Amino acid sequence: MSKRSLLALLLCLVTVAPGWAQAPVNTIRVGAFPNITHAQAMVGKANGWFEKAMGPQVKIQWTSFNAGPSAIEALFAGAIDMTYVGPNPAINGYVRSNGEALRVVAGAASGGASLIVRSDSGINKPEDFHGKRVASPQFGNTQDVALRNWLKTHGMKTNDKGGDVQIVPMANPDQLTLFLKKDLDAAWAPEPWATRLIHEGNGRLFVDERTLWPNGEFVIGLLVVNTKFLNAHPDLVKNWIRANVDLTDWINGHQPEAKKLLNQQIQAETGKALPPAVLDEAFSRMQVTYDPLHNALSTAAQQAFDDGFLGRQMPDLSRLYDLSLLNQVLAEKGRKAMQ
Fold this sequence. Notes:
The chain is globular and about 55 Å long. The strands form two sheets. A six-stranded mixed sheet has the order 2-1-3-10-4-11, with helices on both faces. Strands 7-6-8-5-9 form a five-stranded mixed sheet, sandwiched between helices.
């Protein structure tokens, strides 16, 4: 056999022999926010937890967002495969796609949002919000819906519905800037921004949202996956869910170290670390959990519908959750299934 023929044979064997060929590298594209309420994502990014859990043949591509609607748009556009996000953007995305685009596969966090008023705004009771400017992170996001529902509960209307309360959707860092300029009277904000408004923006805690929910539990963070990606790569999604569960356990069992890593990642993404007092206070208002809190999400959906975000008829959300992979992981660990 000539040298040329031998070389051709060897190249052929390398191409077709499973043991010789390098396994393909899968890329999983994940969205998250630089917030305490996305603790699994922030800590996992800081210490490489997900990279270790997914293995060397999986490349993770992260994208940072300010609020949920932007993350869901990216999911729709095919720019990301999964994202940590609040319940209302997840519900909106599900409804807009007629139940096709996404599935909730695990929980991430409960609590961690508050209504903060500027100390010199003159707001001392709910009726004082008449004529005030109040911020939310983005139109239709989880805090935006909570704010509108709270105002309605207290007999107030926003200016787009004939009332005199102006809701101004804006990025969380801009809320702090406008608090300092006295151009905002209040904001419904997730952590750590709510606590930063208190410590840095002359703010005062007016409503800890936990007080509005049974057992103080409400959904602020979920893990949502593009349905096509879920169907095509259930093994990758299951591995990610397992890592999310393990990371949740680790964070809850190692809070001092977890908060340090969380702060490092927030600094890397926002340019500023949180002072220890802010970090501790913000973290105390939330619970890191893989429980998707199905009942609380149903209530959030009703609030969104009442605020006009989900159309004229309450949508069927029966397929929004797909907890089969989460429950497989929990069964492997000898834990009870989530409903």
